[in-house]
Amino acid sequence: MPLQIDLQAIIIARVPRKKRRFVPNALIRLVEKIICQDQLNAILRDTHPHEGVAFADALLRHLNISIEVIGRENIPSHGRFIFASNHPLGGLDGISLIKVLGDIYGPDGVRFLVNDILMNVRPLRSVFLPINKYGSQGRAAAELINQTYVSDTQMIIFPAGLVSRRHKGGAIKDLQWQKAFIAKAIEHERDIIPIYFEGLNSSFFYNFAHWRKRSGLKINIEQALLPSELVKARDKHFRIHIGRPVGWQSLKQSDLTPIQLADDIKAVVYDLPLQKR
Prior knowledge:
The chain has 277 residues and is an alpha/beta fold. The protein has helices spanning 7-14, 25-34, 37-47, 52-62, 92-105, 135-150, 180-187, 203-215, 226-232, 248-253, 258-271; strands at residues 66-70, 81-85, 110-115, 128-131, 154-157, 165-166, 172-173, 191-198, 237-242.
């Protein structure tokens, strides 16, 4: 039976009975519309029972999304790599990378480092590796990640963690790239393959995120808009630019700090679509 999203059932299960009356049905219906519950459930029904790479492929076909890969020759058929990409979309970018790299390395040959909340996306659990920072679950997640780095499985990562935002001057780019992937590349002797995913969310998403930040709210409530951004991408065409591998030896021998190296690779990524081929 396909997974179906039922926001009302989730609220009933999680909100104490005495407090449910403070959650009006009109609010529930509004949130259901915001997250595009009906459209997401249609996707889940159409793609059932596919999982992992097959689910990513089925979802892209359901939405009639086409992917163009520029620099495919820079993806080695053999070896152990960390694929580091910008994070412009918050859903379709990761799904597209799973599809593209899964076609090359096989359904069991790729894993994606994600926030542990995304483990609720059951059809993609087989390719997701959760980053959980707390308690015994955090230790178990860290051990699983290390085991995967030791293996021959390819690793995909969004070093920024969060989706791209609009910056001063109007440019839409990632936030600060974290340095952990640099240390992992050196520790596990994996070259880094830079990826630039060419795509944007709607202006409404960026304006809302800007308003939320200006208002002083600390919670990234704009994340709730990402499912609707996925649905809006129907019939679109995206380009993925693949750069040449960055050798782990050059990272190890560099005099730069890990955060400086992360910034350098981020700069390489954003330069990829500007290169003449």
